[in-house]
Design brief:
This protein has 273 residues and is of the alpha/beta class. It contains eleven helices and five strands, in the order ααβααβααβααβαβαα. The chain has two domains: 41 residues; 221 residues, 3-Layer(aba) Sandwich (Rossmann fold), CATH 3.40.50.1110. The protein is globular, with a radius of gyration of 23 Å.
């Protein structure tokens, strides 16, 4: 009798599973979630796949200053991503370059070879804007005023919007992870100054762009490099050192968790236990 009951329970479960499969056949992921048969749905990350990662932007993504030669936060994140659910292996291509400004990034995105990389990307890591600000600093080094920084900010916002449009024209599904800026002059003085306000306003512009995109995640790093008390700067006192990139990678993971990796990837990726 006991064997008979067990057999009937197993048979009933199998029958329910078949019925669920028939009703879910051809349904989209969102439609599957809204049905009573969600418990039978296997998430995309159940079958791991190769994830392609591309780095864009300036020296921070290139990893300048990393004495351990681990390719900065980008290399660390590529390694960390191997633990994510849905990842079989990571393939990456870092196209970032020291000194690159937003206008130069737009020029780079017009390169057919770069466009080919963008089309393949599942995740894009991007840092941009620091050299746009430094251009203003160098042009006004003897008479620094706030007005030129805000004039440049308006142009930067337009260029950043163009960058996102170009990326989305090539790839509408990739996750874009973009970091904010920090103030390297904080190692000179810990007194509040106008430059901090400028950095905060530029960061707000970057964050707003990420929010408007819908599949992007903003990573704040301003507080990580506020003074050099934690010895996070390279000997050039401008770029992070290996410890600084360690802290950046940790902040990247925390920010991506907050943004919601599963939602951004539409169920293809998630963090492990």
């Amino acid at each position: 009798m006991r064997r008979y009951i067990i057999f009937m329970v197993i048979f009933s479960c199998l029958l329910a599973s078949c019925e669920a499969d028939e009703k879910l056949e051809g349904a989209s992921f969102s439609e599957r979630k809204d049905t009573a048969f969600t418990d039978w749905y296997v998430p995309d990350y159940f079958i791991p796949e190769t994830v392609y990662v591309v780095g864009l932007g300036d020296s921070l993504t290139e990893g300048v200053g990393d004495e351990r030669k681990k390719d900065g936060y980008f290399g660390r994140m590529a390694k960390n991503m191997e633990r994510w659910k849905g990842v079989k292996e990571i393939e990456s291509n870092n196209l970032a370059k020291r000194g690159r400004r937003s206008d130069e990034l737009i020029d780079q995105l017009e390169d057919p070879k770069v466009q080919s990389e963008i089309k393949k990307a599942d995740v894009i890591y991007l840092t941009i804007g620091g050299n746009d600000i430094m251009k203003v600093v160098k042009a006004n080094i003897f008479k620094l005023k706030m007005k030129p920084f805000y004039a440049e900010l308006g142009d930067f916002e337009n260029r950043l919007d163009e960058v996102f449009k170009m990326i989305r024209g090539l790839n509408g599904d990739s996750i874009i992870v973009i970091a904010g800026l920090y103030n390297p002059f904080s190692i000179v003085t810990d007194e509040p100054n106008e430059f901090e306000t400028i950095i905060e306003d530029w960061n707000e512009a970057i964050e707003v762009q990420a929010i408007m995109d819908g599949k992007a995640c903003f990573v704040p790093v301003l507080d990580l490099f506020d003074t050099n008390e934690d010895l996070v700067y390279h000997t050039d006192f401008f770029h992070p050192n290996a410890k600084g990139y360690d802290t950046m990678a940790a902040r990247y993971e925390a920010s991506i968790k907050k943004c919601g990796l599963a939602e951004l990837s539409e169920g293809k990726l998630d963090f492990g236990e």
